[in-house]
Amino acid sequence: MVCLGAFIAPLGMASVNVAIPALAQELSASGILVSWVPTAVLVANIICMLPAGKLADNWGRKRVFQLGIVINALAGISAYFASGMWWLLAMRFMQGMGAAMIFATSMAILISVFPVHRRGLPLGLNAACVYLGLTLAPALGGWVTHYLGWRFVFLLPLPLVSIVLVLSFFYVKGEWRNAKGERFDWRGALLLATWAITLVFGFTSLPSPVGFFTLCASCLLFAGFVWGQLNSKAPLIRVQMFSESRLFSMSLAAALFMYASSYPLGFLLSLYLQYVLGLSAADAGQIMLSQALAMAVVAPFAGKLADFFPARILSSVGCGLTLAGFFLLHQLQLSTTGFYISVALGLVGVGFGLFSSPNNLAVMQAAHPSETGVASATLNLARVSGNLVGMSLVNLLVYSLIGDRPLTGALAEPILATFLHALELSMSFVALAVIFSLLRGKACAR
């Protein structure tokens, strides 16, 4: 049940990237508006991740998981009928809400079910299913867009959704929650949501004065959120968790920077392959397969190794391989071959697969059993926050280098320049991730 759910969420999120040129043409969307197709999901993830984890600990992890599956599917069905970009973006936001509920509960359910000495492989398999969803998403999205049209991309997860719901309601018995049952911090949830919205709009409004002041406001809101959590009797997250365990805090920091480096890659690579190299959506999707396929193959083995070897070593090696793959991608030109791109993406995928499973296990093992839902949500929040920072900076690059012009093949050089500048940011983020990965210490994630 959990692994199928972990497959559905990224499939619905990432398959749309390949369809962006087609939907942009039909809905007459500019480059700036199109960049919100992946960003809207991230905003919803950040707003809902911690509240979903807290609700899961109190109300039931399986219940919140089921609700996330349903919301994700209904939003996809509604997106199929979208008549304009604003409707589409609203449904992408709803998809992000559902995905947040799935991500916030999946690892917590596994930690609740499996004993300490047997958690590496289940978490590795869960990560592999996430990457398998990412693996098939570009190819399936490309093929469906090419042969049926971009609207059908939003219906891709529906057969699996029905299977997951049948499994969860009729075959997966029991429920997992925090026995104490604390009240929900609605004030903290509202403050977190306001922070996420101001952060995104601040980044996307730069370099204007409005963008600068909005970012300053987001910093104040985040400080207020942290202060409120420190003084709340039933916080969304115990901020003390970060000071209690260096393994916990450094692993989260490494995750944040690794995912900040990777999320914009699918969006920009889709534009590069179709507008710069002139490939079809189906061909672009096949080239983008290599990264996630490598992740899906490596992640379970890395999870099993994490039961015996420190996350500090395994994850740091993964960071290094990812950095090497980004360096190869930074050499792309107006006529680079698809084989070269696939090899570079494969190296990035191996690095991420080796990084993610040991890092996830380190975070989950460092948390108290009663806080596994919050720990799972916090790990995914670090991932999504990294995604949001990376995507927001890329949105700024799109604004500066492409602007509000309709996307066409005539913009090949600006699109390539945007891609290369984004990779320079990605390499900087990975370098920071290596530092935090090594700083977590010698503790073994057991």
Automatic annotation (TrEMBL):
Organism of origin: Gilvimarinus gilvus
A Pfam family of this chain: MFS_1
Membrane topology: Multi-pass membrane protein
Phylogenetic lineage: Bacteria, Pseudomonadati, Pseudomonadota, Gammaproteobacteria, Cellvibrionales
InterPro entries cross-referenced by the UniProt entry: MFS, MFS_dom, MFS_trans_sf, Sugar_transporter_CS
Domain Major facilitator superfamily (MFS) profile: 1-445
Broad class of where this protein is predominantly found: membrane
Protein name, as recorded: MFS transporter
TM region positions: 34-52, 64-87, 93-116, 123-144, 150-172, 184-204, 210-230, 251-275, 287-306, 313-332, 338-355, 384-402, 414-439
Alphabetical keyword list: Membrane, Transmembrane, Transmembrane helix, Transport
Record localization: Membrane
